[in-house]
Amino acid sequence: MNIKKAIDRIPGGLMLVPLILGALTKTFFPDAGKYFGSFTNGLITGTVPILAVWFFCMGATIDLRATGTVLRKSGNLVVVKTLVAWAATWMAAQWLPMDGVQAGLFAGFSALAICAAMDMTNGGLYAAVMQQYGTKEEAGAFVLMSVESGPLVSMLILGAAGVASFEPRLFAGAVLPFLVGFALGNLDKDLKEFFGKCVHVLIPFFGFALGNGINLNVIAQTGLGGILLGVMVIIVTGIPLMFADKLIGGGNGTAGLAASSTAGAAVANPMIIAEMVPAFKPAAAAATSLVAAACLTTAILVPVLTGLWAKRMAARGEAKVQPATA
């Protein structure tokens, strides 16, 4: 049976398939973890410890000695997307209730959901798309996008938007595993290789655990809204990213469009942040569902749109523009 190959054909499948299986378990067997207990309960409810190990291993894969071009391209996309996410979060905080919209097409929409959906790019998707439609330097720009992984950037955005306040120790706790992994990976290449092998391996495990926090009845209520949120992410972040790629990054806009996705890891942020700030707990479940749907929507649409844009640039003689060296 070619189970792995079948999963790989699905955009973001390594994350989304286990997440859906976890959601099915939560919906139809909500007490499965308590019933089996022990290690089974740990797999079902262990989102935070599994993610902590994943952040550590992710940090170990980032090479400090990246080229100036890659850092310039990465920094450009990361900074612009973070600023756009902050602006969108600030606007949402002015108009949407803290616990989210309760009914209608925008049911579940909250500052928490919008922040989580917009502030993290799917780095793997970006790298794969740019290897096909961009330059090697552009494909390598995913290196700094990994810094967005985890709740730290979302916490900074929510704090800067005036939605929530976090004690310094919480910021330190959110980033410390990542920094320790980063330090060890750069001090010893063998450790970098050793821990780096775990990054992809852990994805289905935390995907399944995340899914166990989602009731499919909530997905049914917010599914269309999640698709809408995904489209909003592409439009709201994609347009500024394309301009930034052209004006600052020296590209033709393709890299900016390829970065206009929602990362699979973003699905974890609403629940993690809600644990730190209990005021977000009423909005966390719906936000998780919305972000999961937005992740799937952008994973499908972004490669298609990027391919169409790259072909248009090729027809105009602007394909695979080499960015200026730093």
TrEMBL record:
GO terms for molecular function: 2-keto-3-deoxygluconate:proton symporter activity. It catalyses: 2-dehydro-3-deoxy-D-gluconate(in) + H(+)(in) = 2-dehydro-3-deoxy-D-gluconate(out) + H(+)(out). GO terms for cellular component: plasma membrane. It is found in: Cell membrane. The chain crosses the membrane at residues 12-29, 35-57, 78-97, 103-129, 141-164, 170-187, 194-211, 223-243, 255-273, 285-310. The keyword Cell membrane applies. Keywords: Cell membrane, Membrane, Sugar transport, Symport, Transmembrane, Transmembrane helix, Transport. Belongs to the KdgT transporter family. This is 2-keto-3-deoxygluconate permease. It comes from Rubrivivax gelatinosus (Rhodocyclus gelatinosus). The lineage of its organism: Bacteria, Pseudomonadati, Pseudomonadota, Betaproteobacteria, Burkholderiales.
